[in-house]
Amino acid sequence: MAGGKPRLYKIALFLHLRFLCEKVFAREDRLYVVVATIGTKAMRSAASAAVDDVAAQMPQDVTACFWDSSSTWGLQVADYLLWARQRVLQGKAVNVYETHVAPLVESTFFPWGRTEDSPLDT
């Protein structure tokens, strides 16, 4: 894939934000997208440009906020939940998944389809 991981992350953000903007939020809503800062200065610059580009494509007024994940507990929690969900989707064990993560999952979106041996039905 041209662009590698940064492009994949941008596509994922676009699909996620587009779904929310179309299905959840009203056109006149003002949205704040909070993104954890990452990696080197060059990586942060590329990520910032990608988030700003995606935000500009939405019908709502979207403001991107970049916060240090080590100083923001909500980003740490979101990161853990995403990590746990990914592990389960890969068929790997997460001890507290059923009790602590699964109750928080409303849906799972598979933009590129699913494999027949996918471990989750949702």
Query: In which order are the strands of the major sheet placed?
Result: 1-2
What helical percentage do the residues reach?
A: 40-55%
Number of strands: 2
Major beta-sheet overview: 2 strands, parallel
**DSSP summary: helix tally:** 4
Uncertain regions: pLDDT < 50 for 5+ in a row?
A: none
Structure description:
The chain contains 4 helices and 2 strands. It has helices at 4-23, 41-56, 73-89, 97-101, and strands at residues 30-36, 61-67. The protein is globular, with a radius of gyration of 16 Å. By secondary structure, the protein is mainly alpha-helical.
Topology (SSEs and partners):
Elements: H1 4-23, E1 30-36, H2 41-56, E2 61-67, H3 73-89, H4 97-101
Parallel strand pairs: 1-2
Pfam families: DUF3800
Quickly list its features.
122 residues; mainly alpha; 2 domains; two-stranded parallel ribbon; 48% helix; 11% strand; globular
